[in-house]
Structure formats: structure tokens, C-alpha cells
Write a structure and sequence with these properties.
3 helices; 7-stranded mixed beta sheet
């Protein structure tokens, strides 16, 4: 990434988040595990925005609304966190998310955690799609893939590997 590209470029979904005192260590710096919680907040808001984009209306019941619209749900399979600079108590952050890749039964999202123009943390999350009735891994819903592809500024790649 070059210095003249904003770390939020290419992300359609961004959620503001204020760092709370309880999320920090004794030095007032965000405790490392909380970056995954921040990424989860960002993904939840991404999925909410995707549902609104897909249906044209707001959804108050996020969990059941998502399953009802897309016919499945997801579990985190893998998380990779790249720490670049610390966030501190009372910082106002932007949590930007985009889905980068689809496999057969999984998808990968990239999260940039930023303070203004500064990239503090890059989190890559791989989710496995599952059937909420059987709780068995299943192929990612085509309706979800289509909705994400229409929503994203940068079209997600499609993996040829069966993951």
C-alpha cells in the first residue's frame, strides 16, 4: 500500500466506533484481543447494510433476518490480525469491511481499523457457511454471493479451490 492511498479506499461499508476505557490495558492502549471484537462489529454492520441494500428496507432482527434472506449463516474459521499502530482510550475509529473472496463453503473478509487516515490494524477473517437447521457446513448461498457482488465496490474473487 502506498502512502497516497487512503486505507479506507475500496471499502463501501465503514462503521464508526469509539474506544471505551474497558477495552484498554493499563497503559490506555487497546488490548490486542479487542481488535477481533471491533472487526466483528464491523462485519455485523456490513451484513446489516447488505440486507438493507438487498431488500430495500431495514431489518430489526439481524440474526433471523439474515438467515431468512440468505438461507444460512456463518462461523469464523480463521482470523489473521496485522497490528500496525495502537488505538487508545477514547479514540474514534472507523471499521471498514469488504468481502474479498468466495470459496465453495467459505468467504473471506478484510477489515481495516483506522483512526482518521492511519491504518492501525488489518484483520482478515475467513467464515464457513452453514445450514442453521442441521448446523452442517454447506455451500455459500448463491443469493448471498450475488448480493455481495452487487454491493461491493471491488468484486470479490471466486476461488477455484473447494474451501
Amino acid at each position: 500500500m502506498t502512502d497516497n492511498i487512503h486505507p479506507g479506499e475500496g471499502f463501501r461499508s465503514s462503521t464508526p466506533l469509539r474506544v471505551r476505557y474497558a477495552e484498554c490495558d493499563l497503559q490506555g492502549i487497546v488490548f490486542n484481543a479487542n481488535y477481533l471484537a471491533f472487526a466483528d462489529v464491523g462485519l455485523t454492520e456490513y451484513l446489516r447494510a447488505l440486507m438493507v441494500h438487498e431488500t430495500g428496507s431495514g431489518e430489526r432482527d439481524m440474526l433471523h433476518g439474515f438467515i431468512g434472506i440468505f438461507g444460512g449463516d456463518n462461523w469464523v474459521r480463521h482470523a489473521d490480525v496485522d497490528f500496525r499502530a495502537p488505538a487508545k482510550a477514547d479514540d474514534l475509529l472507523d471499521i471498514a469491511i469488504r468481502i474479498m473472496r468466495f470459496g465453495k463453503t467459505s468467504y473471506t473478509a478484510l477489515c481495516h481499523i483506522m483512526r482518521g487516515d492511519e491504518l492501525l490494524n488489518a484483520v482478515t477473517l475467513t467464515y464457513v457457511w452453514f445450514d442453521p437447521v442441521t448446523e452442517e457446513v454447506s455451500p455459500v448461498s448463491q443469493k448471498f454471493i450475488d448480493a455481495v457482488t452487487k454491493y461491493e465496490l471491488i468484486a470479490p474473487e471466486r476461488s477455484v479451490v473447494s474451501t
